[in-house]
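Reopening this one. Same input as before:
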Amino acid sequence: MTSQPYPIIEITGYVDGTYRTGRFHLKKASVSEEIRTGQLVTNGFSQALSAISRVVDDVQLDGISIGNGAGQRVWQIDAELNGVEDGQWGYSDDPSVLDAGSATGGDRIQKGEVLLNYLESGTDSLTPARLIYGGFSPGGIMPDDSVSVYIEDPSVDIRRSDSSTAPVSLTCVRTMDLNNPVSATEQNP
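Same output, byte for byte:
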């Protein structure tokens, strides 16, 4: 078993007049992983804290944390778009297909535009993106071949001074796919 060595992101969006699933190979990427933690309620004047304090004795000004673990899993991805050698970029792996939904054989500007087209029309809890990386891959150690994510703060920086690459940055945050929710019994058999 081998883990996926670079991130692949699949995004379903309304691109070029139809729903398509684009696949984006981020071969030249660095990835940092973290768990985002925090309290559900942190303010003694909050309505939620007030309601909970009626049920639980002596809540006072303590914060409340509720969740199914320590927090949200987050992948910060920084990559570079180069050109044809990047791998599949959009709905087709054919480098001769170049349109608003696919730019596998395109340049860094075309690839940036295609990625932004998918991000603009997709990724929420009803249509989350899928991250295939590390243990979350067909050869990985996790039980799933991918993980459902939403994408925060995506950017593509196309500089005139650098005609060969374009930096890409995005944050993938694990989320539930509301079209395929998993019950607590399925999570913990």
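So the earlier flakiness isn't reproducible anymore. For the record, The first helix runs from residue 47 to 55.
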